[in-house]
What does this fold into?
Amino acid sequence: MTVFTEQKDHRIKKEGAMPTKFMYRISIGIRGALAGALLVLAACGGGGGGGSTPAPPVVVEPPPAPSGPDFSDVDASFQAFIDGRADFDGISYVLVDADGIIHQEVFGDHTEDTIVLLASTSKVPAVMTLMALQEDANVEFSISEPVSTYLPYDGPYADRTVEQMVSNTSGIPGLRLLPAYGSPTGPTIEDFNHLCQYSAQPIFEFEACGQTLVQNELPTSQAAGSVYDYGGSQWQIAGVTASTVANATWNQLVDQYLGTPCGLEVFTFGNPWESPTSFTGSVDSLAGTANPNIEGGAITNMADYAKLLQVHLNGGFCGDTQVLSEDAIASMQVDRGGVVATNATPYGMGWWIRSDNPGVFTDPGAFGAVSFIDVNRGIGGYMAIDEYGDAADSGAPSGFFIGQAIPAVQAAWDAAQ
It folds into this structure.
């Protein structure tokens, strides 16, 4: 088992390995010791015992090790952001490369163990789970096949694929149509209609809700592959299809393909949407784990999400276990949303493609959390926020992180190269 040790603001190194810097220091030390020994021998053996004092050995000091990127300006920008906001009490962030955490900092009332609701920052891990299921040799599942291939029922949306659903191109109306999804007060299950996916009430069962979504067509539905329409029922159908194929709950799949191999301590899915403010930061306070919301129901701490981001930077590995192939990781970054005829928007599967910042992919959430990877620099990061009430401007943290913090991280990284 590989053991990691962490030093603040330095990258995490594997114990027991022989890094290039360490080997260089050994080489310098050996050459210095040999030079000193030769000087001593020359002094002792020459001059026929003239009585002169031997010269001291020459000590060659190795050059100081590079300190790595200086993220102090990034830290200062976070501190300024939280100091200037009365609607947020804390914020935190973590940066990673392929080897592990390279920097993390907390502000306000946050700690390194703070657990937050992710909202749509759940989307990338959801797609990771689906891709891992597809790559499981023991399961017959393809994101490119219509979900009717796997579901024991038919319906207006059964001809769409999981790939279309998690790229928001299935033609199933997304969150823009949320007010028309159903009645939030019922009174019957049928009246709730597509809103069943956002409820933690025990009357709603995960797979039964999925069947409701497949079989009840929404107004303004479009042909598959013709339009980009973000979020909503298409994501829930994708998750229900995966659970049906594997004969497992959604959280069992997440734990099998991500939680166990990556050693995740907290990460799981629930359904907090009826009352987000009821979440206290404790795993036990997460509602709706029996009917998890696929697109926006996950919770995490910084360490767990950092491990998930590393997978996208190191070829698909958690420790010694490859949880995703490099092809699967690359496929998530391929633009599918930007090539449709209507409302074309650069989007892969789970990742927004930042056309204004080449090589950068982001996954922002409605409560303010954001994750990103920069494939050109081989780094990534995650920002946590935990204010869920209506008084908080949830768009402010993600706007700050994407517009200011990420460019500052990139500048610090480039300056150290």
About this structure: The first strand starts at residue 4 and ends at 5. Residues 1-50 have pLDDT under 50 and may be disordered. DSSP finds eleven helices and 13 strands in the chain.
